[in-house]
Each structure stands twice: as C-alpha cells, then as structure tokens.
Write a structure and sequence with these properties.
By secondary structure, the chain is an alpha+beta fold. The protein has a single domain, classed as Transferase(Phosphotransferase) domain 1 (Transferase(Phosphotransferase), domain 1). It has helices spanning about 40, 50-70, 125-130, 135-150, 160-165, 180-190, and strands at about 35-40, 70, 80-85, 90, 100, 110-115, 135. Strands 1-3-4 form a 3-stranded antiparallel beta sheet. The chain starts with about 35 loop residues before the first strand and ends in a 5-residue tail after the last helix.
Length: about 190
Amino acid sequence: MPYKRALSPDCDVVNTPTRRPVQRCTTARLMIRRPSYSLFEARAKFCEVQAGHIFRQIVHPINYFDTSLDIVCRDIKDENIIFSSDLSVKLIDFASAVMLRPRQHGHRQPIYFDQVYWTMNFGSPKILKGMSYRAEPAEMWSLGVFFFTILTGEIPFPGPYSAAASPGCPRHKVEGKASGECLEIFGGILMRNL
C-alpha cells in the first residue's frame, strides 16, 4: 500500500508524498516505478498555484482530444487523475470516452446524448435531470467541478439533486477563500445552461 501523507495548502513548500527507498538487486536490473496517487485518494485541497498547475495539465489534453482527435472523455473526476510527488498529473480511464463527428470548417454538428456516462457528482444539471445533452459543454461542467474540488477540498454541491437545482457555482463556499480570477472561472464554467 502506498505511503500517504496529507498535502499542505502552503504554497511555499510542496508537501507531497515522499518515495520509499528502493532496494537494488545486484543480479538483475529493475525498473523503478514512480509512486503515483489519485487526487481522490489524496483528499487534499491545494493552494491556487498548485490547483492551477494541476488544472492546466488536465485542460491541455482535454482540449487536444476535442480539437484534434474529436474525442470527449465524459468522466473527468478526481479518481481518474493521478499525480506524482512533483504534481505531474495524468488523466486515466477512458472507458466512457466517445468519438464525435469531425469538425467541418471549424464547426461540429451538435450531437445529443441521452445516457449517463458521467459520475453523478461531476455531471451537469442537464445530465442529472435526465435531459438530452451535448458532451462538450457537459465536460466543461465536469472540469469546473474538478477545479472547485482540488481548490477547496470538497465538491461544490452536496449531492446530485442540489447540483441539478443549482443556479450555478455556489460562490458562498469560495468567497474570501479564492481570488477573483478563480471566482470568474467558476462563474464561467459552472453555468446552469450546460
């Protein structure tokens, strides 16, 4: 079982899990596996600098998947993101991913889905209400929930029903705890019409 240590919200010191000493075998060369942890296992909240660093590492591949490969992951959550001691992250588990029609002249014909492929706490209000939804905007909602979670240490809504009924980002949970830029991001991503 990997060694776990709570991460500190202190931005000046990166307080991340440390490596155990690796015993060397003299007769055969061993591959050394870097320890990694899911963000769900860590159950940590990060300072804005750390959260922004993690968030950018997730947004870049998500954007690449959408714009270059016409793929939407459809299950972005803290359990599907692993990180190493230097806060390098990887997105895992593409079982819910879907390929969309390629863009024509920069635009994609909207495709609507009826089945739920998201984890409920990260699903957009349309998904939670059982309405037809487009995967791309729903993925943006999941990214907003993910960013909120790593910044505050908790999901923005206590359950799927409150997320479905919510007018948007629960600003009261982050006001005074996050910068104006973060509040803008939450306000732009966690929009009810997604």
